[in-house]
Amino acid sequence: xxxxxxxxxxxxxxxxxxxxxxxxxxxxxxxxxxxxxxxxxxxxxxxxxxxxxxxxxxxxxxxxxxxxxxxxxxxxxxxxxxxxxxxxxxxxxxxxxxxxxxxxxxxxxxxxxxxxxxxxxxxxxxxx
Length: 128
Ligand code: DHK
Known about the structure:
Elements: E1 2-5, H1 17-20, H2 25-39, E2 44-47, H3 51-64, E3 68-71, H4 80-88, E4 93-97, E5 119-122
Parallel strand pairs: 1-2, 1-3, 3-4, 4-5
Helix pairs in contact: 3-4
Bound molecules: 3-dehydroshikimate (DHK).
């Protein structure tokens, strides 16, 4: 399973704790690895602030991984290019957001990624 974290998620723990909590990206990785181990699924955990790098990771996933978990973060509402890359991938795609976007700013409500997602979870903090 390739787990892709988008821009600014490396700043979890210090970044707007009222929205994202005090846990760090390392804590998220620990949870993902434990869940993967429990399910017998290999975990490939990544973060990037670069749209281009994220697109490359999605394209590469087409030949190499069974599924993608993605928190597109700030690219959620802007990146048709990430959506297009996800549309190439034919395995399951899980869109995740730490915060409940539906309760936040109007501009966060639109998700291009949702058009390619198999399932979506938001608002459960890093447990999601
Ligand atoms: C993370 C971000 O960085 C924001 O740009 C999104 C998302 C919300 C989250 O809740 O994980 O709007």
